[in-house]
Amino acid sequence: MTSVDPQLELKNVTKRFGGVAAVDDVTFAIGKGEILGVIGPNGAGKTTLLNCISGVYRLDGGDVRWQGESIAGLAPFRVARLGIGRTFQIVKPFTSMTVRENVVAGALFGSDEDRPRLGAAFGRADGVLELVGLRSKADLPVSAMTIPDRKRLEVARAVATRPKLLLLDEVMAGLNPVEIDDALEMVRAVHQSGVTVVLIEHVMRVIVGVCARVVVLDVGRMLADGPPDVVLRDERVIQAYLGERYARRLRGS
Amino acid sequence: MIGMPASRIWNRVFTALAMAVLAYAVLAPLSSLDALQSLGMPLLTDKLWFRLATITAMFVVMASAWNIIGGLTGYAAFGNVAFFGIGAYTVGMLITKARWPFLLALPLAPAAAAVFAVLIGLPLLRLRGHYFAVASLGVGVAVGELVQNVDFRGEPLFGGASGLFLPILAVPNRDLYFFYLMLAAAAVSIGVTWAVLRSRFGYGLIAIRENEEAAAVIGVNTTAYKVAAFALAATLTGLAGGVFAQWNVFVDQENSFPIGYNVEMILMALLGGTGTVFGPAAGAVVLQLLIQFLSGSLPITLQIPFVPDDAMPVLAQVVLGVLLMLVVVFAPRGVIDFFGGRSTLSIAYLRRSLRETSV
């Protein structure tokens, strides 16, 4: 399933906490311009995998390669400067700043390429706010924002860092169906602006809607890698999500 | 600018008031110039005025400098007095031992403090919250003790317990000279804060204060930024120490490393509003006047029944402690909160609740 031009390659990535392998020997690659879904039940190691890529955790084994070069062991800020942006599942806004200032902070740092000066950063920020649909709320303090809007802001700040690859950690979690549709629209817009996207999600529906390819994790191991309609019919995936008994019943019917 | 605007009317009243006081403070000393005196200009200042104004300017520097690491970066440094002492002793040593002229020695005071800040910042700034506060306090105390007690070939290296006596600087209008020198340091401190808040560097520091992990993943080199902020605070504080040494003519552990300064500079920044440009300076002026008033150094003194005069300095410390508690509990962002209505004790909050409850 790997495309011709792999941008990010994970090779036997392993991360242990004590005796438990939270991510165990995971290998796959992401092609430039792809939009990849990473799904799995609670505790599957999705966020740990993301932390391994963005430099928050050090690997216990394996390698992460970005455009052909190893980035394993780099500090998070160095990974960001190479053009890999990320969001946090539990949003981490800069609360004393306004919405616009949060995004300006993202624009001022991030990728080493094309770093704007302070004045230009404000212009860039407004463009990003437009893209994620927060333009009208630019001058609000973060404290006045709803949860869906805070998730949008989290994405906006990451997009402002001019990433080539954006890792989105459960940006739909805790949203209602209508809000999820809005958020999906935003993710599509970001992807269409030319960014490779990795979408980590718990909710299946989300992935099926936007991703052409899905990677499934369960207790740290990779279960499946393929188009959503194939992967979601995979018996091991059904078992992991719904339990063995349900899988057997499904087989029986 | 990053931060919330306070209530507009109050803003204007206070700006006008502050400008008037500032204009007086900056211009009044000129009346002591011989040329103006001979023209019959009344003397607007005296020895006491100069002493008070110079000390106040010195605290403006220290509170503004603390604001850069404590207010903007969010690292509660409790040992900044070490930078003051290092600045003072750098000038003291260069003048007494190496016979350098004052103006040549002065630039090395901030430089020495900055180098020291980088050296201790690299390990200490890995600590967060209370751990950093306690560790920095430890450094502040330790440096003072070392300076007093380090011997070299049986002789105290830095003057020991008897301190260093500097020759009096031969300049006309010495009081005026040191007042303007300290005032310039204060202006530089405020200017630096202003510039930092309008720069990439400032955005990085505030991002670190708000959420260090999020700052790192948007690409802020958090270690470098924290150490730079610490060194910048040390530079300004060291400059104040350097000017102090020559102004005071005598430096020892007690006057160069007073632990109380740590509390005072933080309280000033908190009182005025951390993270703002003018807050710490305003806090320094108000609190320094209060300290001098309570300790009986001002012409107007306070008489409290049953409290003997010599107990007043102690009372000043008690008042500072109580004030610190009140500020932290009711207006954690400083008086800015008080006028912006974000504290439940604030004037704006009171007005708002009166309006909302009236029928």
Q: What does this 3D model show about the protein?
A:
The complex is a heterodimer of chains A (253) and B (359). Chain A has 253 residues and is of the alpha/beta class. Chain A has 2 domains: 1-83 and 164-253, P-loop containing nucleotide triphosphate hydrolases (Rossmann fold, 3-Layer(aba) Sandwich), CATH 3.40.50; 91-162, no CATH class. Chain A has helices spanning 46-54, 76-81, 99-108, 118-132, 147-159, 177-192, 204-210, 228-231, 235-242, 244-252, and strands at residues 6-17, 20-31, 35-39, 61-66, 69-70, 84-86, 165-169, 196-201, 213-218, 221-226. In chain A, the strands form 2 sheets. Chain A has a 6-stranded mixed β-sheet with strand order 6-7-8-3-9-10, sandwiched between helices. In chain A, a hairpin with a 2-residue loop joins β1 (6-17) and β2 (20-31). In chain A, α3 crosses α4. Chain A starts with 5 loop residues before the first strand and ends with a helix. Chain B is mainly alpha-helical and 359 residues long. Chain B has a single domain (45-307), classed as ABC transporter involved in vitamin B12 uptake, BtuC (Orthogonal Bundle). Helix content of chain B is 69%, strand content 2%. Chain B contains 17 helices and 4 strands. In chain B, strands 1-2 form a two-stranded antiparallel ribbon. In chain B, β1 and β2 form a beta hairpin. The longest helix of chain B is centred in the middle third of the chain and has 27 residues, at 222-248. Chain B is globular, with a radius of gyration of 21 Å. Chain A binds chain B through residues 54, 56, 75-77, 79-81, 85-86, 88, 92-97, 101, 104-106, 108-111, 118, 141, 157-158, 161, and chain B through 2-4, 198-200, 203-204, 206-207, 209-211, 213-214, 216-222, 275.
Q: Summarize this, please?
A:
The complex is a heterodimer of chains A (253) and B (359). Chain A has 253 residues and is an alpha/beta fold.
